[in-house]
Amino acid sequence: MGGEAPSTPARAVIRHGQAGFQRPPSRAGVFPFSEAGTGHAAFFDLDGTLTTHRSSWQFLHEHFGTWSEYGEQLQGRFFAGEITYAQWCGHDAKPWVGMTRGQLVEAGRGIAYADGARETVAELRANGVTVFLLSMGLNVVVERVAGELGIETWVANELCFNGERFTGEVRVHIGWGEKGRVAQRLMRERGLPPERAVAVGDSESDLSMFAIVGKSIAVNPRDERTVQAADLVIHGSLAQLLPLILGR
Asked: What's the pLDDT tens digit per position in 46-89?
């Protein structure tokens, strides 16, 4: 799951209303945006979308040598229905108790940006599109990425610290399937209409976000359900998003 995404030809496929995600006509967005600027929004996933690694949780486990004997086992228990998502997060972070914030942030720096991520976000922001970052990953990674890309509003799951030491507590701000709820709240707070928003992601964890915006784009999707739920699918560089969203 880690490493650079394989090189594949650029490809875009338009899809509409598949896999149970038909949008009401009142929320059908114009795509590309006829005029970028105030009132338009783009919601991005992080892991596997703006970055090459599929999971910041797994990346940290691999970095510290705790994936195969610990993290992978917990992942299996969650998908088998044995534990809740909150329980998974709480247990998953236990090997890092006592580590410093600096250690965890520095470890996360090994996660590489996806091709075209920096210029795509920069160009959207330069054209007045409000960019949000919604991730089920970790604040010690997401906060750094948001800062580097100039994304002011981000939501991620939070490792809690006492001073500089990780306590073992994890605050879940985005649970499994909850990105749509979070995106709706942010749009309501900012007065942004859903039909003028686009969501960009790569996996099933992004589908609730896909369902509540005007248009959805799957980038290098990792499963068929995500392909079927998206309005549009691209493979390769994120820079392909720019003419699709901005129309130029």
From this structure: 999 999 999 999 999 999 999 999 999 999 999 999 999 999 99
**What are 119's two structure tokens?**
């210029």
Q: In what order do the strands lie in the sheet with 130-138?
A: 11-14, 232-235, 215-219, 197-201, 41-44, 130-138, 153-162, 165-171
Full-model pTM: 0.86
Mean pLDDT of the chain: 87
Minimal CA–CA distance to 187: which of 246, 132, 121, 127? 132
pLDDT tens by residue, 139-172 = 999 999 999 999 999 999 999 999 999 999 999 9
Distance, CA of 85 to CA of 239 (rounded, Å):
33
Q: How many angstroms separate the most distant Cα atoms in the chain? A: 52
To 10 degrees, the CA torsion angle through 207, 123, 191, 231? Answer: -30
The helix/strand/coil state of 196 is helix
> Which helix (H) or strand (E) is 43 found in, with range?
strand 41-44
Per the CB < 8 A criterion, the answer to whether 208 and 177 are in contact is yes
Reported confidence tier of residue 17, pLDDT bands at 50, 70, 90: very low
Burial category of 20 from C-beta neighbours within 10 Å (exposed 0-12, middle 13-18, buried 19 and up): exposed
- Separation CA 182–CA 26 (nearest Å): 21
From residue 215, how far is each of 40, 78, 109, 220, 221 by CA, in Å? Answer: 12, 30, 31, 17, 16
For 128, residues 6+ apart whose C-beta sits below 8 A from its C-beta are 36, 37, 38, 40
